[in-house]
Design brief:
InterPro entries: SAM-dependent_MTases_sf (IPR029063). By secondary structure, the protein is an alpha/beta fold. Helices cover about 35% and strands about 15% of the residues. The chain has one domain: Rossmann fold. The chain has eight helices and seven strands, in the order H-H-H-E-H-E-H-E-H-E-H-E-H-E-E. Helix 3 crosses helix 4. The chain starts with a helix and ends in a 5-residue tail after the last strand.
């Protein structure tokens, strides 16, 4: 009988220890939808902005109920800009693909950027600036901070082109993002990202560094987009997927949805998640 009592006592003690040392849950007060506090972290209510995503999504074609046309809410200025912008880009002969070529993905990126509370958008991988141009046009209150290696001969001319179109709303930092983002953050701690897009170096080290460095610049409940994952055949799918899945397992992000473009010959996908801030 004493053995039984002893065993029960040990079990109770173990349960008490587990309860005391259990991880606590981060609880954040949700601010009004349009609240933005400069130099402090704001909380954005994203729920209504994901109404375009169906339950159990498998392919990107399911977004927006299958309607991949660009939103009619685009300003008249955008319609005028886009023709000139595309012509200028073609003259520079960009050597890489870009998200705007996949209409449904571009539409999703624009939808998230158009949120009234999105004031600051941070991206790695400017390339020729198609997405940057779209964000600045769809959201007249947004400021884009871009980080790009600057190796493509068209990148700097296109950045200057966008800077002239949207004066005072676009900053770009050239160089290795694994070094430039931390330096920028130290010099500008007041810049906090509401929407983060990772589309820079497609290696495990660079992608992971960009994610973790941007996390330090994130607002509460910032949204992060990882370009080019998932994809079926592209060689970087496994590399980027490893980083994304690692971030999920380690509590860096919480995935909201992912999708793959099923239209041939396209092989493109992207993943969207919420940054998990270590508030506790």
């Amino acid at each position: 009988m004493k053995v039984v009592y002893y065993a029960v006592g040990i079990a109770v003690l173990v349960l008490v220890c587990v309860w005391i040392t259990r991880p606590t849950t981060c609880v954040r007060k949700t601010l009004p939808d349009k609240t933005f506090q400069k130099n402090s972290k704001a909380v954005i209510n994203w729920d209504k902005r994901f109404s375009f995503v169906p339950n159990n999504i498998l392919t990107c074609s399911q977004l927006f109920n299958g309607n991949s046309e660009l939103p009619s809410s685009f300003s008249k200025d955008y319609q005028g800009y886009v023709s000139t912008f595309q012509n200028t880009t073609k003259k520079r002969d960009p050597g890489e693909g870009y998200t705007a070529q996949i209409t449904v993905a571009f539409k999703a990126y624009l939808e998230l950027a158009s949120h009234s509370s999105v004031k600051t958008i941070c991206e790695t991988g400017f390339n020729a600036g198609h997405s940057t141009f779209g964000w600045l046009t769809i959201n007249p209150n947004a400021h884009v901070y871009s980080f790009d290696i600057g190796v493509h001969r068209y990148a700097k001319p296109m950045a200057e082109y966008i800077r002239k179109l949207h004066p005072g709303r676009f900053n770009i930092t050239w160089g290795d993002s694994t070094k430039t983002i931390p330096i920028f953050h130290r010099q500008h701690p007041e810049v906090l990202c509401d929407l983060i897009i990772i589309d820079g170096g497609h290696t495990t080290g660079i992608c992971k560094a960009d994610l973790l460095n941007f996390k330090k610049m994130a607002n509460n409940d910032s949204i992060v987009i990882l370009d080019n994952y998932p994809q079926k055949s592209w060689k970087f799918n496994q590399i980027l997927g490893d980083v994304w899945e690692w971030a999920k397992r380690n509590g860096e992000i919480s995935e909201i949805f992912r999708c793959h473009v099923d239209a041939k010959p396209s092989d493109f996908g992207f993943s969207v998640g919420k940054i998990i801030n270590n508030c506790c």
